[in-house]
Design goal:
Elements lengths: L7 H5 L3 H14 L6 H14 L3 E5 L2 H11 L7 E5 L5 H8 L3 E5 L10 H6 L5 E4 L11 H4 L7 E3 L15 E5 L13 E5 L2 H10 L21 H11 L2 H17 L20 E4 L3 H10 L29 H9 E4 L7 H21 L1
Parallel strand pairs: 2-3, 2-4, 5-6
Antiparallel strand pairs: 1-7, 6-7, 8-9
This protein binds pyridoxal-5'-phosphate.
Length: 362
């Protein structure tokens, strides 16, 4: 049996009867968009995250754009963000007409390096958008003293300790591989600033509060009732899922994986959205894993600043050395809530064999 990188189905399989029960209730209600489940989920998510308000939206990319729009960030403005992240982070900034200014990363946490962020602040900087990459919190305590609004891209970190309570707003994606997921697309904006949340709430529905008077140029970006019904159920499972991910990460370490590559540094509250190791031998290990039919992935192989869509900014290779190094060395191994120990043992034994053979050959 081939091993997937993430087995989404294994995580929700035992919940299918409860999901269907909730779907049945939604179908019988006849309310399919922005109904009582969305409202209840927004309240439950706010309580979970420890923020006053959240707003359900269509996906995590819209969540980012809506926050930037609500802050009236656009042409002529700069937003500092990492390049070592999913493309949507900088894309959202560019969608508003603003310029993404890239900060390099810390090689251990893989999150933005606060010193490089500070070095890139100009009089045009309107916001800093750190990403809590792979489920690990970015160093917000070091960014706060800069006195610039922080927008947390928390798409990969629902449930990670200390996420969403620092930034003016934080954004989440419920794409099915994320820690908290929907059965399709979904997203959320969590705001510590209630006025900002209210503005996002209007912008997700054409800039209107009452569907008659249109105050802003908004968009249509709503969360469905069916998705919200599933999300309410899954929110109750999330801590258990994240605990299971932490146990799986600990097991990789116990199995001795650290002899062959650099393991992600553990810290309390890290929720391991992905399990990403580093090794200069990535090519050899990836090949051996694929040959053993074990899925693996290398993230952000072309980091955002070197993507064709950003060629007008003229970034060249060497601009962000730690980002570019991480792009060459990272390797994601199978990880999900409830991944069987036997699978992890197979992964480690394939890595061990490839490393030993490689060492003998060189
Ligand atoms: C997944 C993700 C997004 C985008 O979320 P979608 O729901 O797919 O639009 C944005 N930023 C990061 C860091 C992500 O991982």
């Amino acid at each position: 049996m081939p091993v997937p990188l993430v087995d989404v189905r294994a995580q929700y399989e035992r919940l299918i009867p409860q999901i269907l029960e909730r779907f049945q209730a939604v179908l019988e209600s006849g309310t399919l968009i922005l109904g009582p489940n969305v409202q209840a989920f927004e309240e439950e998510a706010a309580a979970y995250l420890g923020v006053p308000k959240t707003v359900g939206v269509a996906n995590g990319t819209d969540a980012l754009v809506l926050v930037l729009d609500a802050l009236e960030i656009g042409a002529g403005d700069e937003v500092i963000c990492p390049s070592f992240t999913f493309y949507a982070t900088a894309e959202a900034i560019m969608r508003t007409g603003a310029t993404p200014v890239f900060a390099d990363i810390d090689p251990v946490s893989l999150n933005v390096d606060p010193e490089d962020v500070a070095a890139k602040v100009t009089e045009r900087t309107r916001a800093i958008m750190p990403v809590h990459l792979f489920g690990r919190r970015a160093d917000l305590a070091a960014l706060t003293p800069l006195g610039i609004p922080i927008i947390e891209d928390a798409a990969q970190a629902f449930g990670a300790q200390g996420v969403a309570t620092t930034g003016v707003a934080s954004t989440f994606s419920f794409f099915p591989t994320k820690n908290l997921f929907a059965l399709g697309d979904g997203g959320l904006v969590a705001a510590t600033d209630e006025e900002l949340a209210e503005r996002v709430r209007m912008l997700r529905f054409h800039g209107s509060r009452d569907k008659k008077t249109f105050l802003y140029v908004g968009t249509n970006s709503r969360l469905d009732e069916l998705q919200a019904a599933a999300l309410r159920l899954f929110l109750g499972e999330l801590d258990g899922w994240n605990r299971a991910r932490r146990e799986a990460a600990a097991r990789y370490a116990e199995l001795g994986l650290g002899e062959f590559c650099e393991l992600p540094e553990d810290e309390p509250g890290h929720v391991y959205h992905m399990y990403v190791v580093r090794t200069p031998e990535r090519g050899r290990l990836a090949e051996a894993l694929s040959a053993a039919r074990i899925a693996n992935a290398s993230y952000y192989v072309t980091p955002t600043h070197l993507q064709p869509a950003l060629k007008q900014f003229g970034h060249e290779e060497g601009f962000l050395p730690e980002t570019e190094k991480a792009s060459r060395e990272n390797l994601a191994l199978p990880m999900w809530a409830g991944i069987p120990a036997e699978i992890q043992e197979r992964v480690v034994s394939v890595v061990r064999e490839a490393s030993t053979v490689g060492a003998a050959a060189s």
